[in-house]
Amino acid sequence: MTSLHDRLDLTHGPAWANRLALAPLTNTQSHADGTLSDDEYRWLVARAEGGFGMTMTCATYVARAGQAWGGQLGISDDRHLEGLTRLADGIRAAGSVSSVQLHHGGRRSDPGVTGVDNVAPWEDPERGVRALSTGEVQQAVEDFVVGAERAQRAGFDGVEVHGAHGYLLCQFLDGRHNHRTDGYGGSLEDRARVIFEVLRGIRERTGPDFQVGIRLTPQGNGIVLDEGVTVAQWTLDSGLVDYVDMSLWDAFMTVGEGEDLLIDAFTGLERGRTRLGVAGKIRSAQQARWCLAKGADFVDLGRAAIIHHDMPRRIEQDSSFAMAALPVSRQHLRDERVSDTFIDYLDAGWPDFVAG
User: Fold this and answer.
1) Which listed residue (167, 184, 243, 345) is catalytic?
2) In this structure, are residues 21 and 65 in contact, taking their beta carbons and an 8 Å threshold?
3) Does the active-site annotation cover 167?
4) What is the pTM of this model?
């Protein structure tokens, strides 16, 4: 059986030293203009030093109009390059593969931060959301591609395209609302078109050793499970990505009325040389091994990686290691190189995470 600490080879770029990846985690630590802060640098490099095979940034906006919260890391402008280059160098020096998650918030952006109206595939006047024109859809594709080119210039090993969690690319997949008639809405094939244009553009305009992945949502946000499975299979078949990262919310959940596991709907797909990762409440060595036994090639760790910057090393040393119980103290988090800014975000948004 595959071990969590077996090397993971991908079609493009460097192998990962193990099957444990840092999940892309919102942390609000960047400067107001999207440039990297020392706190965010320390947070991410500590995870690389802690043994993660792949270390990924938070969702990083590719266009200012796509910024979804204050303190979000940016890759929309060359002014972001200096910090991104420093980060790529730091992750590499720590022995981990590096990736930027490319993101656009769409209707979930924050106009109080961006200074412009939110945009989406469809109009939503009650929320002040304007529908993208066809030309603006094509510009959004270009923004993702230019973001990937900028990540490559900064020295990152790859990028992950954020197509999940109800953000812009995921919004195009929403069958309830996306009834566009310009080739980017209506049928599932047309709703998924923008995703494949982004992936194709990135693959064509980055080097042969640059890794490309995508994060997808299996269901919800207007996506039914059958369509989520179909899009995942199309992506696995496309030859455009090195891996598909399924954000399951809970990797152990069942679906429907029976005992069918959500993870099985994706690990059972034909994938050729494309790798498949899963995320969702994986907080122990045993749970991570279970995901590999179910057929995943790698797992993403989120909360466990916040609580233990060296979770992979701890698992390697103790095959029964599990994340410490929540809540944890502010001092514990500071010792794990989590800044007070990030701690405040966790305390405000994640119940029972921070003690006191």
Assistant:
1) 167
2) no
3) yes
4) 0.97
